[in-house]
């Protein structure tokens, strides 16, 4: 068998190192942009808009294994299975559905991060008393 410079086996693009149970180990990051409006004095009834697009970052083979036909590959077609991409997105808009698929495939959440900024308020021509906020959130899932 061929060896890499580090002494380990040389893998072809169609091979991968498998984790426990014969499944590939690795990471998949799920991200989305959202927006919400908070009325005067931060009322408890903030209005959230639906998630427009859920992005997927990770190795192509892992993303295809987990999401199958619901993975939209149009932004990065013909990506080799063992290469990373951050250009895929899902054909559905429900985070719970993405989390269920990851859980069923043996992934667990390892980290998450979110940012939020005020998009505009009255001084930028927005609604008189409301402020519209935008956010970007990422969830990192791993499988050993």
Automatic annotation (TrEMBL):
Pfam families: H1_KCTD8_12_16. Keywords: Cell membrane, Cell projection, Membrane, Phosphoprotein. The keyword RNA-binding does not apply. It comes from the Eukaryota. One of its GO terms (biological process) is regulation of G protein-coupled receptor signaling pathway. It is found in: Cell membrane; Cell projection, Neuron projection. Residues 1-22 are annotated as: Disordered. The keyword NAD does not apply. GO terms for cellular component: neuron projection; postsynaptic membrane; presynaptic membrane; receptor complex. Residues 26-143 form the KCTD8/12/16 H1 domain. This is KCD12 protein. It comes from Columbina picui.
């Amino acid at each position: 068998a061929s060896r890499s410079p580090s002494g380990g086996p040389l893998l072809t693009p169609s091979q991968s190192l498998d984790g426990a149970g014969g499944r590939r180990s690795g990471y998949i990051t799920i991200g989305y942009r959202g927006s919400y409006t908070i009325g005067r004095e931060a009322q408890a009834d903030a209005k959230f808009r639906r998630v427009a697009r859920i992005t997927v970052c990770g190795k192509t083979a892992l993303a295809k294994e987990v999401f199958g036909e619901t993975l939209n590959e149009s932004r990065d077609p013909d990506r080799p299975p063992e290469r990373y991409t951050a250009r895929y997105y899902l054909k559905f808009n429900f985070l719970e559905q993405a989390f269920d698929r990851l859980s069923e495939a043996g992934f667990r959440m390892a980290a998450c991060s979110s940012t939020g900024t005020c998009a505009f308020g009255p001084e930028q021509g927005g609604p008189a008393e409301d402020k519209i906020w935008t956010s970007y959130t990422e969830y990192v899932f791993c499988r050993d």
